[in-house]
Amino acid sequence: MKTKFLLSMLPLSLASAMAFSQSIDVQVTNLTHGMNFTPVLVSAHDGNTHLFTAGQAATVALQAMAEGGNTAPLITASAGTVVNTNNIANGLLAPSASSPVTAIETGVNTHLSIVAMMLPTNDGFIGLDGWKIPTEVGTYTVYLNGYDAGTEVNDEIIDTVNGGADDGIPGAPGMDAGTGASGVTDMETNTTVHIHRGNTGDTSLTAGISDVDSRIHRWLNPVAKVVVTVK
């Protein structure tokens, strides 16, 4: 009763901050066989903020991340939230690897979002959109799907000239993709953010329809595991 009385005497904004402020640790694990993730963007925010929304067109900031791994525009767009980028030593999160633990003081932020580009893809990314952070101390596990930003045709052609800046895959970090592909498709019917259909790939390293190796770069959801520790 004494604690309740003291809180009632505080200004409402301060009492709210004391009630909701918490610290969390976040770690992401790559569950795929042969895909790499660009540095993972972790954002704690209010319930009205979204880094992406399935079923809606991607923002310019999301497009920059999904097509080239550039998280800077999303960080700018998330002004006012707590944002951290897991800068893995070589810039990529390899298959079966886990990111460094990201420690976040969430303050009054109640929701968590996570994104990172998947390589090699045209505009595929791992995504967690507005997950409500538990208030009870403990460890929580969330599995993430691979999303398609809907901003680029999934032709699965490695772009060695422009690094994927104007269509094409920026590269295959494992140096295990092919060249000379004719392209899986030259059009997309769904231009909103949606669940990625996965790489098609083929087994030719010098021709075929795809530069992606179907023996290495195909995947099924989920593609990532997130462990959140509420302290």
Automatic annotation (TrEMBL):
Keywords: Signal. Coiled coil: none annotated. The keyword Glycosyltransferase does not apply. It comes from the Bacteria. Residues 1-21 form the signal peptide. Residues 36-152 form the Spondin domain. This is Spondin domain-containing protein. It comes from Oleispira antarctica RB-8.
